Amino acid sequence: MRSYRELFRTPEYTPFFLSFAAQNAALTISGLALATLVYRATSSPLLSAVSMFGPQLAQMLGATFFLSGADRLPPRATLTGINTAFAVCTALLALPGLPIAAVFALVFLQGLIASLGGGVSGGLLNEILSKDGYLLGRSVFNMASGLMQVTGFAAGGALLALLAPRVCLLLASGLYLTTALVLRLGLTARPPRTAGRPSVAATWRTNAVLWSSRPRRLTYLGMWIPNGLIVGCESLYVSYDPGSAGALFASAALGMFVGDLTLGRFVPATLRARLDIPLRLLLATPYLFFALRPGMPWAAIAVCLASIGYGASLVLQERLMELTPGELAGHALGLRSAGMLSMQGIGAALAGTVAQLTSPATAMTLVAVASVAVTLVLAVLGRQMRGEVAEVQTA
């Protein structure tokens, strides 16, 4: 499958894609509105960053207990229920006078619910598309995510200039309900991919199987840590320049869109497989420029260039699917999503803490240095592993 025409002619792909786009628009608008609301109330870069990316902190906890449901629950009903729950939680966040502790409790609950969604969505996409169409289909989802972030953050910034943050949260809640409706009407009722009831024991057992392979471990760490640290940089946009945060988020999303479009459609598979390390380095190095405290538009150009590096996740997802049995695809992709989002939450908390002690610009620079260091260490470990495999095969 090499063309977008073939892709969108695939049954169920179009409504699934539209629901994904609507969900991402809701996520960006609600995240920016909530971060702005918390920053206005507390003047804290840390609390603002964690409020926006806090749901990710609960992802790994959810993956530890609930992820076996990714392959053991019916996809349509599960995804519809998840988006309905998001709508309710987002509407509750819009309540006037809601204490900060209650805000973070709801944010944590959203993260627990979302920990199941990545696995169910990834496994369903793997079912809907043929094996040779997965990367192209996944790249379109990533591009939609970038485009919806551009649109969502731009729209969110404009809405915040006209409306109160709580009104923007209610609009996002309506988008989540729309997503649930599209999923319910547009997808067929498929049975679970794996027999058995979801359980903590099944989750731990499958996590152990997936983690037991060294190539899979290095692939997971490559998807999780550099990405999460750079999202920590993004979590500081509001405190770095409150008036231009929407433009910075939109610029980052535009870069991600360009990277995914190029990798998914135009780069040959043989070349694509060698680009994961250069792309991860590109993801971090432009943020070193923030040591100079650039203003707009230079800051926007830097984050746009850096976000092209998010295309590394496509390369690594393709590698993960090659290393994983088909019956574990949903769980494997759910673990990828939960680990990546957890690291994004940790990255936001780490960057927010450093910003609290220094400044947002200094925190961005230091976190980018850490991301580069992690990428180089993982590159060395991967090279050593390949060398060991080659020695065994030669002997």
Task: Considering the chains and any ligands shown, give keywords for the structure.
mainly alpha; 19 helices
Structural notes for this entry:
By secondary structure, this protein is mainly alpha-helical. Helix content is 80%, strand content 0%. It contains 19 helices and no strands. The chain has helices at 4-9, 13-42, 45-57, 59-66, 69-72, 75-93, 100-128, 134-162, 165-186, 200-211, 214-234, 237-240, 245-266, 269-272, 276-284, 298-307, 312-322, 329-357, 360-394. It starts with a helix and ends with a helix. The mean pLDDT is 84.
Secondary structure elements and pairings:
Blueprint (H helix, E strand, L loop, with lengths): L3 H6 L3 H30 L2 H13 L1 H8 L2 H4 L2 H19 L6 H29 L5 H29 L2 H22 L13 H12 L2 H21 L2 H4 L4 H22 L2 H4 L3 H9 L13 H10 L4 H11 L6 H29 L2 H35 L1
Order of helices and strands: HHHHHHHHHHHHHHHHHHH
Strand segment tally: 0
Poorly predicted ranges = none
Mean pLDDT: 84
Radius of gyration: 20 Å
How many helical stretches? 19
**Distance separating the two termini:** 39 Å
Which outline best applies? Answer: globular
Query: Pairing-aware structural class of the strands and helices?
Result: mainly alpha
Biggest sheet architecture: none
Task: Please give the share of residues in helix.
Answer: over 70%
In terms of DSSP E residues, the strand content is under 5%
Provide a quick synopsis of the model.
The chain is mainly α. It is built from 19 helices and no strands.
